[in-house]
Amino acid sequence: MVESLGDRVQRRMRGWTESMAGEDLAARLAAVGRTKSEYGVDPFGFSLDYTLAAIAPLVWLYKHYFRVETHGVEHVPPGRVLLVSNHSGQLPFDAAMIGLALLLEGNPPRTIRSMVEKWVPSLPFVSTFMARVGQIVGTPENCRRLLEGGEPILVFPEGIRGISKLWSQRYQLQEFGLGFMRLALETDTPIVPVGVVGAEEQAPALFHLKPVARLVGFPVFPVTVTGLPLPLPAKYRLYFGEPMRFTGRPDDEDSELDGKVQKVKRAIQGLLERGLSERKGVFR
Amino acid sequence: MTQQRREEERAAVVVTGISGNLGRVLAKQLHTSERIIGLDRRPFVGRPKDVEMYQLDLRKKKAEDVFRRNKVKAVIHMGIMHDPRMSEEEHHSFNVLGTSRILEACAKYGVPKLVVLSSANVYGPSPDNSNFLTEDAPLMAASRFSNMRDLIEVDMLAQGFFWKQPSVHTVILRPVHIVGPTIKNAPSNYLRLPRPWVVAGFDPMVQLIHVEDAARAMIQALRPGPKGVYNVVGPGEVPLSAILRELQRKPVHVPNVVARPLLRTLFRYRLAGFPPPELDHLQFVCAVDGSRWEKEVGWTPAYSMREAIRSVESEEGPPAFRQRA
Fold it and tell me: Which ranges of chain A have pLDDT less than 50?
């Protein structure tokens, strides 16, 4: 009975997604194709049926709450690509919005993978949701495997340092990890810098409660003005930059790699500055 | 008389643990093409007439006599015990000492080929696992489930032997969860429960291999080519929920915080057959990349995912083995 209820909910949700995104979405996606088993999932656990149902609330957020505006989606090349973005907002709505931008506005639509923190698979419900919508634990092996399979991958080199930024640190890029650059060099993958404007203001965090974070086993526990890390209706602007290609040895010295990483970081900073100068306010 | 003598001169494949459910399937596949000598403490029920059987303990001297008296061209070592109720000491001694004796015999009597059955479970389910573990991933299973130490040690012993004795072509196979009509390991038993537990909010990808395919993989490992460690994958991977749905089970969703203490108590009072660390398999992935094996021996499983899943239910015995052309 629970299952039939689940099926009904899933159909209803999918209908909602289609009413907002247009019914041709499923057909356009099917044409893109991705290998799946007779049980409707790909080897990593992604399910298109589940995704089209589960993203309905996110599509609503995309269209009506964050009112996402995209610039330069056409820069994303076909085949394997690393999308490298700034990360902010306490909860990863920025990842969801970038994913939806490529799904709803990409031509052809792309279903991107993003690399999630290693503690995500230990969270009930969240772990299943993430796997079904195509999110993967961020190990280098996973990333390499997906790139070799020609998939677009979203990475946030700032990681937790970025998403948990305090209000005073908004639009200041934190230290970038080097892992994505090693992978890009190893697999000869183009990098598309992405600047997300708006997410940085969605949940202004005042300070972190370290003892609470330790207690509940979270990496951080931010306290925001609203008390909860729920987002305010900031207007999102997504800027996709020109693809960048790098050559060199993936096992080079960190200092050598860091030079390349700084170029990507500067490109993202440039996109952010452009976005900030173009907008009239946080909410419009 | 002369015919019997000729039989004794024909080089044999020694199979340890032959009386187990997997061993019997393997014997039935192999006995028509090879001379088999089975070693096991348990009697071989339904033994084909041409399988020679010695009921003995691998740790005893008599096991070595088999190698002295016969020309052995290969050993398939499956004589590994997994019984969560057995005392750890006996378990460890049987598995580790038994394996060492077999390795020693292979070196001493110049056996050219050794196939050791390990398991993909040696990697251990964990939230930070990559979705597909390759053969060089660390064997972490014992960090959360101490009963796995034996199996890891057997795997490591065989790996050490692979390096120390290059004259013996050693193959270590790490197949994913083996399921089948006669199989009574934890995954098969779990899938037979009418109301299996699942951990609420978790639905990991699971890999299964049909017992006939697992046996066939071990036979393929006897070929001259393969050497070293191989993950062996069946028809792919599916979410646990899809397997339970296929079998029309009614899972009980138990929250993680309750599941572990409850199962510990039930296991202690023998009301449940699964030790609590097995819950990790219901929460986290422990899936492997079998491409090395696929490439080197041209491996394709004969049983589809649906057939593998449903195989736990068929009581009438294994379906006729299907040979691939």
Answer: 1-2
